[in-house]
Design goal:
The protein is α/β, with parallel strands linked by helices and 465 residues long. Helices cover 45% and strands 11% of the residues.
Amino acid sequence: MTNSNLFEEFSAVTSKQWKQKIQYDLKGADYNDALVWESLEGIRVKPFYHAGDVTKNISFRLPQDHHWQIGQALYAQNAGLTNQKALDAIHKGATSLMIEIPESDIDWGILFRDVPLEKIPVHLHFKFLEANAIKRLLDQIGSGTAQLFLNIDSIGHLASSGNWHMNLDKDHKVLQAITTLCENHNTNITVLGVDIAWHQNAGANMVQQLAYALAHANEYLNHFQHSMANSGTKAPIAIKVAVGSNYFFEIAKIRALRWLWCSLADRYGIMAHCHILAIPSTRNKTLYDYNVNMLRTTSECMSAILGGADTICNLPYDAIYHKANEFGDRIARNQLLLLKEESYFNEAFKASEGAYYIESLTQQMAQKALALFKQIETGGGFLSQLKKGGIQKKIKESAAKEQHLFDTGQLVLLGTNKFQNDNDRMKHELQLYPFVKTSKRKTLVEPIIPRRLSEKLEQKRLDDE
């Protein structure tokens, strides 16, 4: 048997030939009407993709040593209890921690007691903005090799709450003080974060999410370009994304985000990649038939892995109506462990590279997002558009389109707007209020409010129980 190519006797099939064959098999039906559909992002999806659909300039290649971390979310109301949960999560497979810090007087020594910070990257999410708390943190961890992501995002706080922590000037001064503290420290710390998960959960389409992430990051790049340019190989910024159930589109979204960041960072002389933290979206999670949420989050975590996310923190199946509990956390963590250790997704993160469909989606999303980013910059930038209400208006318009698809049954959430189990009873299972909370208060800008697609339908079902 020779080593010649077994397929060399077959001639290549062009895209035109494939389309002619499909058109023939349609027996007179229109190709575009029958098989081509348009996404909420305005991307027309074809029934097949060919080498000709991808330009020669492939979006980007992940480094050979890229690997993803299994994240565990924790809430540090009590430092000692949170420390115990952190150590237990690490023992059971978590390789990164996401800790929400609600109060500035947290005891860092107790919180990080026996936590191997040199091996376990830690993402902190602060409910406040204060330099003294960061200084105490730096004093506690010393000058070792701990990898910390502070995720300080004052602009994101304005977008989500409608107000600055204090005011523009004071927030700016504190952020500058925190940045200076960390620059003078030897530990590997990423100060800034950009949270676009909030936008996805509020109904922004994927092109909007990418453009807003780019414009949001650009506000920080403009101001901190010198320190970021000197960051070396350390990620100068962390971007938090929410991943929905549109499997291939979500893979392309994360790849496009990395590509767009590299393009923007290059203009500032920054060579390092951003750090992408991915979590499943809450927008498509349901109260009824809640076990289906496990299927949704598994698919979404797979998209995040194949898209090249650096850290993935799964969402417990009961997170929208149950307080944090050991069972829900364990199931969420084990989903990622199964993907990494038993489904070979630790090695499969490059499987999407070179796939014509995904490469085409990646490029189309990046191009559309770049065009929208340029419009935002022409209009004064992200912060200016946020203050004028332009960002909020566009997200509302996108959310309304998606909500219409759900309400009319074109977008299906299994067990909720299709194949309902009439015997489901949830009224007495609610430990958390699973719907949007509204309260009148004075805000500087209109806040961007996350809202699940199934809320109105679920409220009616609860009333009918």
